[in-house]
Specification:
Rossmann fold; 2 domains; 8 helices
């Protein structure tokens, strides 16, 4: 069988090491040369000729993370790699998936074009902000879900009084999957924004009186929406509010917002490194799931089988 090479970008090496450990292999040797003006030159220090190459790098800010992934992809292609998969646990710019006003870019489509132009044969990612982003690519996309990770965690908790909630209308499908899996009610927070990262108005659709509410979302940025939803849910009579958010962007005043909020706990995945510790934030690892998906890809087995209910 063709050799597998697991390579990592600089900012995702913490996760790549966990993936490699679960996979049962070591990370390949990559160094990044930096010129005095900040220009980078990734160098793959071992042969990848004919190999299945998996390049692991989330594309959260700064933009150098995306640039490093593109350069690594080009380096692998020019080194005659047999098949290149860009493993992008957090796909940056996914929120810009449409023209919602005149004269703005569809940035997620541009990123897809760049990855293909650099030489990627396949993309593996987790919890895209919008499922239709898969259609921006003309190469296969393995869209992993964090649900098995969270389901396993929640099954160890007392959910006798639980209700699942979506912090906005766009996330209803995601929250409904949890509601259906655990056979629990679903409520929706309907929000209105006047500008990005600022919620002007929010209402709760459904009864949360006396319930332990679990908010479900794909990412948490400034945590404004999440904290506002928790506040309103408590005002409506809920006993407690927790949140599950796959990608912890946590920019701006996010940590202060969370620590001073009504949230009892925020559970995130390690697709993006946590910048600072917080007693309210718990991190679950995606390493095992990505390792299994990489193995299935290499062995030409189903990725969907990883998410089938037993």
């Amino acid at each position: 069988m063709v050799d597998v090479k697991l390579l990592s970008g600089t900012e995702s090496i913490y996760l790549a090491e966990r993936i490699a450990d679960h996979y049962g292999d070591k990370l390949g040797n990559v160094t990044v040369r930096r010129f005095s003006d900040g220009e980078m030159q990734p160098i793959i220090k071992e042969s990848v000729r004919g190999a299945f190459v998996f390049l692991i790098q989330s594309t959260f800010p700064p933009a150098e993370n995306l640039m490093e992934l593109l350069l690594l992809t080009d380096a692998a292609k020019r080194a005659s790699a047999g098949y290149i998969t860009a493993v992008i646990p957090y796909f940056g710019y996914a929120r810009q998936d449409r023209k919602d006003k005149p004269r703005v870019p569809i940035s997620a489509k541009l990123i897809a074009n760049l990855l293909e132009a650099a030489g990627a044969d396949r993309v593996m990612t987790m919890d895209l902000h919008a499922d239709q982003i898969q259609g921006f690519f003309d190469i296969p996309v393995d869209h992993l879900k964090s649900e098995p990770i969270y389901f396993a965690h929640l099954e160890k908790q007392d959910l006798s009084n639980a209700i699942f909630a979506s912090p906005d209308v766009g996330g209803v499908k995601r929250a409904r999957a949890y509601s259906k899996h655990f056979d629990k009610p679903l409520v929706i927070c309907d929000k209105y924004r006047e500008k990005p990262n600022e919620v002007a108005e929010m209402t709760v659709i459904g009864d949360v009186d006396g319930a332990d509410v679990i908010l479900v979302d794909d990412l948490v940025d400034t945590a404004g929406t999440l904290c506002r939803a928790a506040e309103i849910i408590i005002q409506k009579g809920a006993k407690s509010v927790r949140a599950l958010c796959t990608h912890p962007i946590l920019s701006g005043k996010a940590y202060d917002n969370i620590n001073n909020s009504q949230l009892e706990e925020l559970i995130v995945c390690d697709t993006i490194p946590i910048a600072q510790e917080s007693p309210k934030i718990k991190v679950l690892s995606t390493g095992k799931l990505f390792a299994r998906a990489i193995r299935n890809t290499h062995e030409h087995r189903s990725i969907a089988a990883l998410f089938d209910k037993e």
